[in-house]
Each structure stands twice: as C-alpha cells, then as structure tokens.
Amino acid sequence: MASLPPIDLPRGATGAGAFDALAEGGENNVLFGFLLRLGDDSLILGQRLSEWTGHAPSVEVDLSLANIALDLVGQATHFLNHAGEVEGKGRDGDALAFRRDVLDFRNCWLVEQPNGDFAQTMARQLLFSGWQKLLFQALLGSRDATVAAVAEKAVKEVTYHEELAAEWVIRLGDGTEESRRRMQDGLEWMWRFVPELFDMDPLAAFVAEHGLGADLAALRPAWDRRVRSVIEQATLRVPADQRPILGGRRGHHSEHLGHLLCTMQFLPRTYPDATW
Amino acid sequence: MSKDWPLWEVFVRSRGGLSHRHVGSVHAPDAEIALRHARDTYTRRMEGVSLWVVPSAQIVASDPADDAAMFDPAADKVYRHPTFYSIPDDVKHI
Questions:
Q1: CA nearest to A71 within chain B
Q2: Is there a contact between B32 and A167 if contact means CB atoms under 8 Å apart?
Q3: Would A224 be classed as within a structural domain?
C-alpha cells in the first residue's frame, strides 16, 4: 500500500518534486495516472449509486439510478482495462478495481460522498454529470484513441444523466417546502467538492499539454452557465463558494471511500477464485 | 411517494416502420418525467426507437359487460379477413 501522500503542498513545491518521478517514467506513467482518474470517478460513483437499488422512492426511480450506475461501471471497465494495458504489469480492469487499496484510488472527492437523501444524490449527479459531459466532449479529440472512443460512447450516456438530474433538481427545488429545503441542503453539501473537478494539478496540465486530456479549467465557464441556469429554474440559490477540498487525485480521500471499497471489494478479495 | 404519482401508459415503437405498441405503465409526477421513467423501465435493452406516454386516466376503455354486443358479432364473418390477396415477400409488417 502506498504511504499517505502530503496534504495540499504549496503549488510550486508539488510541481518541483512529486511529479519528477512521473516524468521519468515517461508519458505512459502519466497516462496510467490519467486513466485511473477517469476510471475511478466512474467506478466509485457507479458503486455509490448502486446502493440505491431497492431503496429509491419508487421502482421507476430505482431503475433510473441503476441504469446510471451501470453506465458508469461500463465506462470504468473501459478506462481501467486500458489503464492496465498502459501499465503493462498484467493487471486488468478487475484487478485495478478490486485489488487496489484506498490510497491508490484517484477519484475526486465528490463521487465518494455518501448518497444522503434523494435530493443530495441528485445534487451530486447534476454537478458531476455536468462536468463529465463537458470533459468527455473535450476528450473526443484526445490523442489516445481508446480515450477518444470511450468518450464518444460515454458522452451520450452522461448527457442523459445530466438531463435527468437537472429535471429532478428543478422539480424538488420548485416543489414542496420540504423538497425545496432538502434540495438546497444537498447543493450546499456537495458544493465544496466542485473546485477539485477543475483543478489543473501537474498531471492534469501535463496530459492537457500533450493532447491526451482536457484543459479542465477551461470547462468551468460552460459548467457554471449550465448549473446556474438549472439552479435558477429550480428557484434555489447558488451556494456560496467554500474552502475547496482537494487531494483525491493524489490518493488523499475522505473516510467514506474506504468503507465503500470494503463493500465493493469484499467478495473478490475473500474468494480470489470467484468468477462472474 | 409513488402512490401519489399519476399512472402513465407506455407505448414503444421497436423499429422504424412499426407501430407503437403498448408495453406497460409507469408512475411519474408529470409528462417529462414519465417519458424518462418509460425510457429507463422499458427501453434499457434496446427495445425501442420511439416512446409515447399517455395519462392512464385519459384512456377510454370498453366495458367488459358489453363484450357480447361489442365483439361477438364479428366472430362468424371470416369474409372480412383479406386472406385472398397474395402479398409480395418484400412487404413486411402487414
């Protein structure tokens, strides 16, 4: 297991030190890290959403959430299988998903947050799918053919996720007194995890410069326009910016991720020969 | 919660050229969400290319008590079936 990475070093310091090792490993090493970010985001949110199965407000919503979860797990399979090939150590997507420890996960904090109530889940989905849609649109032009191909398939999926989440945010926000309160609370809870989505740390900058990834900071204006428009239609208020929480991209996670992995990884770790 | 939502009948066109067919129903608070629920419930295995949803309350149904008067008279009029035409092999879905 990797050791606990340092928390929020000054920007200049990380650029000088931590990523020299990556650069020495060559572009493949950076590409591996980039693919883990893409795959882990989808994987962890897919696992989170699947927790709703059997518990959603109605059987129809149950199916909606399970469908989104399956789309995300499908994306994760593609990204992590590709990551395993790039790494070249014989690990496939399953090995990366089920035999990796929490400090080696590279997903953002937003996706590992607990579901909370239905409004909180929809708040997370709107913020995340809105970002993922813009990201995948940008990745259509990735120099990595697999990334571009997965993005092309996935952009249609996440467009639907984002629209569905927007519909619910608008209905709950502009609904009853209780649904309105819960929807506003959900947005407030999730808002602090937004800056991490657009954070251009050295790895993100590297893959953007080399035509593999996207300029995340450049996605922010379009994301802001869309999310603010939905929140406005929902007659809610845009949450005030809070102190951003960063670190997921370097393996520094909230306590929630370990618990999620316990559930997700239990079976293949306990029965290594199991097949499905 | 769902018991408060109205019921919507769902119709799916499985391929271009075919009619929409009734496949079931969903609960939803309004028409747009009904379409999304219909999509997520009935087309998740590539069953369709087009969806209709109709408020179930808007369906006017025949009364089962009137079955005899409504449907029995057609039972002995086989000549109403256009079975005497030959249909070219290329024509599907008639």
A1: B44
A2: yes
A3: yes
Q: What is the count of structural domains for chain A?
A: 1
Q: State how far the Cα of A75 lies from the Cα of A42, in Å rounded to an integer.
A: 6
What is the tens place of the pLDDT at every residue in B68-86? 888 888 888 877 877 778 8
Which residues in A lie closer than 8 A to residue B37 (C-beta atoms)? 60-61, 63-64
SS3 of A157-224: HHHHHHHHHHHHHHHHHCCCHHHHHHHHHHHHHHHCCHHHHCCCCHHHHHHHHCCCCCCHHHHHHHHH
- The range of the structural domain enclosing residue A214 comes to 21-236+246-270
What distance in Å separates the CA atoms of residue A175 and residue A34, rounded to the nearest whole number?
40
Query: Which tokens sit at A116?
Result: 């909370």
CA–CA min distance B58, chain A (Å): 21
A60 close to B27: Cβ distance less than 8 angstroms: yes
Interatomic CA distance for residues A138 and A216, integer angstroms: 9
Give a yes or no: residue A130 inside a domain: yes
Q: Which residue has the tokens 């904090």?
A: A109
> B39: which 2 tokens?
């999509």
What totals of helices (H) and strands (E) does chain B contain, helices first? Answer: 2, 3
CATH number of residue A171's parent domain: 1.20.1260.10
pLDDT tens profile A132-175: 999 999 999 999 999 999 999 999 999 999 999 999 999 999 99
Question: Cα–Cα distance between A78 and A35 in angstroms, integer?
Answer: 10
With respect to residue A127, please indicate whether it lies within any of the assigned structural domains: yes
Helix (H) or strand (E) holding B10: strand B7-13
Residues A169-188 as b or e (16 or more Cβ within 10 Å = b): bbbbbebeeebbebbbbbbb
pLDDT at residue A140, as a whole number: 98
Hey, of A61, A70, A71, A174, which one would you mutate to test binding to chain B, going by the most B CBs within 10 A of its CB?
A61
Ordered domains of chain B (ranges, CATH) = 2-64 (3.10.20.520)
For A211-265, the pLDDT digits (tens) are 999 999 999 999 999 999 999 999 999 999 988 999 999 999 999 999 999 999 9
Residue A151 lies in a domain: yes
